[in-house]
Amino acid sequence: MDGLFTLPFFTGLAFAVLLPLVGIWLRLRDEWLAALAVAHLAGAGAVIALGLSAPALLGAAGLAVAGMLGRHLPASGHSAYAWLILAGWAVVLLVAANSPLGETLARQLVDGQLYFTGPVELAAAVVLAIVALGLRRRIDRHELAMRLLPATSGSEASRRRHVGTMIDVLIAVALAAGTLSVGLMATFALVFLPAWAGFHVAAHWRQASAWTIGLSVIGYLLAFATALFLDQPFAPVLVATLLALATATRLLSRRAC
Amino acid sequence: MRLELIDLVTAPPGTRSPRIGPVSLSLDVGETVALTGPNGAGKSTLLAAITGHAPVLSGECRIAAGSRIRLVEQDARPDRDLPVNGHDFLALAGAAPQPPLPLSGWLARRLDELSGGQRQLLRVWAGLTGPADVVLLDEPSNNLDARARHTLFRLLDRRPAGLGLLVVSHDAELVSRCARQVEMRPA
Asked: Domain tally for chain A?
């Protein structure tokens, strides 16, 4: 592989491990659509930050965290995520229309700009992936308990809320960093598709994690090679590859869809 | 005394009306108490108040220091497309990993591949053998056929010594198996 693509390759690989973990947690909460909403807000935050001459990652992470923590203010459930998707989309395009640099960034956010990522994006992706992998068992346990075991005291419910807020922040920052590096739809695809297939085919929890991360990494490697070999834009190739892999995995599983 | 409610008045979670109660009851170590009453009397809401999910508007809910409470809900959230099998669930709940037959035969299957009754019995087992001193069972025999009800009674009879049970039920046979009964009436 050309040295020019080494940094982007490892940046993308780190996101291919990090974002499906986020997908597992959001799917356990039945909040996977939140990923698309928060990614839109991250895009809006990046464009606003650029307009204010501030670092794009800071703006993206700031608005993503705000959106994640306040996601239930405008409405509840999927209505809230639809509201946030529309708000993020409107802000991105409005700011972009009124700023020449913003227009370039807005387009890059949608298309993905993995080949133009550098050491900052790589460092962010690796640090976030290490943190997520290190906390994975605890977060899995927390999210499974939230799903399957009701809290049995006010103090336990309060502790769960606090832990949930910390997980929200990690999820939001991961989505913001992913959106700035691999693009909005590629980030959503890495969050949604591997977990969608992994949850369906696995016989138990550990297998579900292995399937989800495995599908994501295989899809990423295939897409990276295909995009380079065929000289195609990376993000749509990644989304198409993950769509094909995840759908085939579900269709070929012994469980009915 | 593990649990004592003194003239407790509560309301559905997040609200202050309709007011439910006042209710007074006590649950001693190893005792079983049935909480009965018509639909809408507020039995499930009372359990929510005991577990801190519903407000205590007046009266008292006393839980003995160090006592751990576990709630086995009536309608658990649907487990569709959730890759968790029986082993995973019992480990998560901190329950005894080897339940008796027929439950032991279901452990390798995902929860979403089990029937509602099978999931209910696994949840009851997890509640009875998990880290708890008092278990609140909300309609545990709902949707169980005769054989599954028999299994439920067997699990309850063999529960760990000292475990207190507060059972919400309309099931006359289940209620009759409890040492005492407390009836709630609609406000």
From this structure: 1
Taking the C-alpha atoms of residue A46 and residue A124, their distance in angstroms, rounded to an integer, is 15
Give pLDDT tens digits along chain A (257 positions): 666 788 999 999 999 999 999 999 999 998 898 899 899 889 888 888 877 888 888 999 999 999 889 877 777 778 888 888 898 888 888 877 887 766 777 777 777 777 778 888 899 999 999 999 999 999 999 999 999 998 888 888 899 999 999 999 999 999 999 998 999 999 999 999 999 999 999 999 999 999 999 999 999 999 999 999 999 999 999 999 999 999 999 999 866 55
What tokens does B99 get?
A: 């339940």
The distance of A156 to chain B (nearest Cα, Å) reads: 9
> Any chain A CB within 8 A of the CB of B84?
yes
Cis status of the peptide bond prior to B102, with omega within 30 of 0: yes
**A193 domain-assigned:** no
Element (H, E) at A62: helix A56-69
| Angle, helix A6-28 to helix A119-148, in steps of 10 degrees | 20
A207: nearest CB among B51, B73, B83: B83
How many residues make up chain B in this entry? 187
- B68 to chain A: nearest residue by CA? A152
Query: Do the strands B56-63 and B3-10 form a parallel or antiparallel pair, or are they unpaired?
Result: antiparallel
Does some domain include residue A233?
no
Please check whether residue A75 is in contact with residue A83, taking contact to mean a CB–CB distance below 8 angstroms: yes
Check CB contact of B91 with chain A, cutoff 8 Å.
Answer: no
**Is B88 at the interface with chain A, CB within 8 A?**
yes
Helix (H) or strand (E) holding A227: helix A205-230
User: Do B85 and A156 make contact, defined as CB atoms within 8 angstroms?
Assistant: no
Cβ neighbour number for residue B36 with a 10 Å cutoff: 18
How far are the Cα atoms of A77, A217, B29, B57, B127 from residue A236, in angstroms, in the given order?
28, 16, 63, 56, 48
Contact by Cβ (8 Å): A216, A19 = yes
Q: Could you tell me the pTM of the whole model? A: 0.90
Q: Within a domain: residue A242?
A: no
CATH code, A64: 1.10.3470.10
- Evaluate whether residue A140 is within a structural domain: yes
Counting one residue from chain A and one from chain B, the pairs whose CB atoms sit within 8 A come to 64
**Domain ranges, residue A12:** 3-185
- Residues of chain B with C-beta less than 8 angstroms from the C-beta of A153: 51-52, 69
Query: Which residues in chain A are contacts of B52 at CB distance < 8 A?
Result: 151-157
Q: Which of B52, B77, B92 sits opposite A157 (nearest CB)?
A: B52
